[in-house]
Amino acid sequence: MFKLSLVLVFLIALSGIDASPVKYHNPSCSGNISATDVDLVHFAMNLEFTEAEFFLKASTGKGLDAFNATLAKGGPAPIGAKKANLDPITNRIIEEFGYQEIGHLRAIADMTGGIPRPLLNLTKENFAMFMDRAVGRRSNPRFDPYANSLNYLLASYYIPYVGLTGYVGAIPYLVYFNIKRLVAGLLGVESGQDGVIRTLLYERQNETVEEYGGVTVAELTNEISNLRNELGMCGIKDEGLCVPPWLGAENRTTSNILAADPYSLSYDRTPQEILRVMYGTGDERWPGGFWPCGANGRIARMFLDERYHGNVDACSDGKYY
């Protein structure tokens, strides 16, 4: 246990050292990869685990294992998540989201067997690193997603939308009816969660974020979306709460409660793009960020660079794969 703790400290520190994405010269934007339907929904479980732990711990003070001890399948406990200082309404919403994520994990596990939970870095330092990169300067005081409702909603803005785009990207490559029905159901609720988070933030769009003095909520969401587009490396797949008219619905609005393409259809992302965004490295081969030991499942491990932390037992002995 002591050895593992040292490894986690090393990985967290490493993920925050270099704020610039890894240069990946020919990034693929194709979702046509060698993967079965089961592989695709197993990949999605990485995001479902992340959301479940982040929502449950923040709203109830307890993680997934306190509600269902079998879904993690022996994967390591998350690091850094804690009870957030949320107002009663936000707490109730996030608690409901957390229970929904348990249902999503159960649905996938019951149908496909599931995968072990990956190591999740939900520390305030990790969130601060992503926010600082989005804004382009160090927060002062340091950004803490658990400090208040506004910070928590801004941190939540980063995660569920990525899962939404992943489901949209997976659907065209699914073969079997039962998996298509499962993913359609998952996508519906994920979309609703993202819409609620964006609406709550839109209501506060003109408020300034203390940690980035002078930057408004709307401006910060734009910067977060820009960062995800930069890391994903496949064009515009992300938009903030307020956009220029040429990005608004039918070029008639600057409000952007629901991010969508010129036809008001949801954007899609491939597994490669999602790994680049969630690792924070811009490279699906090189873990970091929210998944410091890499995501789990065949798709994620297929892309993983075998040299990554090959000398670190906690990430190379197969226990967390």
TrEMBL record:
Keywords assigned by UniProt, alphabetized: Signal
Record bears the keyword Signal: yes
Protein name: Ferritin-like catalase Nec2
Position of the signal peptide: 1-19
InterPro entries membership: Pigment-catalase-like
Entry annotated with the keyword Signal: yes
Pfam families found in the cross-reference section: Ferritin_2
